[in-house]
Amino acid sequence: MKKTYIASSWRSALLPVLLAALSARADVVELNDGRRFEGKILLLTNERVLIDTKAADVRVKLGFPRQEVASVTEKELEPGFFEAPRTPARASDPKKFSEDATLYLEVPVIGEVGTHIHAAGIAPVLQYAKAHGIGHLVFMVDSPGGDADEGVALYRLMRRYHKEIDCHAIVRQCRGAALGLVLWCDTIHLLPGGIVSGLEKLPTKAASKEAPEDEAVLRAMIANRVVSETGKSGFRAAIIRALFDNSEPLVVWRGPEGIEYGPAAPQGTPGNSIIIDAKPGQFLELTQAQFQALGMPPFQGEAKDLGAHLKLDGWTLESDYGPKTVTRVAVEKEKSKQAAQKVAEAKIEKNVARRQETNDYIEYCLQQAAKWDPRQGEYEKYSQHWGWGWGGTAVEWTEDSQKRWKTRTDGAIHHIKEALKGIRSVKKLDAEAVKLGLQPTFKPGEADIFIKDLEVKLVALATMRDRKG
Known about the structure:
2-enoyl-CoA Hydratase, Chain A, domain 1; flat; SH3 type barrels; 14 helices; six-stranded mixed sheet
């Protein structure tokens, strides 16, 4: 799906005005509500101001009606303004470590996601570890969950670094939004009495009746991403899906050939063989006993004890950079969360991220719908099956072929419905984006055209579902 954030129509119509604005080099925009944006002015007219700037370390182009702008000031842009933050100097003396030391950093993930835990606090630690060759990060996790969007930010951050740093999670409690971090770790160690559970209930402060559907789309996106990008399969993939989607039952049991799973265990399966039995509507919770039953060795200890557990020689803490950084960022976030500037930047960051993730999910669903298109399947007729003429039923498919047609049709219908949810979600996010000064994903009326097209396809698929030949 085409992602259009900035329309191209103004380029030719306003080119002379744009060139004049660029020559003025006005680089600071202050709004009537106190917000201030620094960057490079792209457009300056009596009607509108467009600036290339940063909001919460995300580079974006923001546009504002001229009447909302208090002042526009010329200022030279600092060198490297749009570059990624520089890696801080090393907090330890490398000479004090032996050559065969296995260095690690400890990172506390304690408290609520979005309040005490922020992607902005974890990111510098990952950057620091990569820059200074520290191969392991140990996350000490004790979180009841929190903001779902910040959980997605943690997920994207961990995805970016997972091939470069070995990450481990020692878990006391990991609920909801904290899963975005833990599920990317190379090893997960659940402490005695610990718990890993699915997303918490949807927020009651939803702004509109569509909000629960938006959150459902978000959970489905995260689950599909984790399963596909980490290569999870079998019962592990089923468990991840159950952590984010509680609409389907999941039973995991130990059978004669190992761990098996499905919506129900075979009749006669001994009760002591059942590892997980999650009913529809129930948020999946995993305990240490279940982790061990799934084949994960028990662990009890702290970050300093993990090296021996993993049989890593020379396990050595590099510095206290992790706790200091996470704490510093949390304090800074708390101090600034009421400031109009930071609130606005957080909204912009959230809107940009949500639209990007939802667009990716729409694309995934449409690809899956195309794969499940019943017209792409092969079907056998009775006349072909028996090798003789079959009178009036010569054009009919066999019973198995009829079932295959229905199955493929149902698969295509499911993924088109999911894509429709995503497009409706983006449509609402687009309206919010315009209020924030961002360019919408869809051109005016474009989302409604996509929705109508997919609704027509749904009707066609439903009409043909019971075809027999």
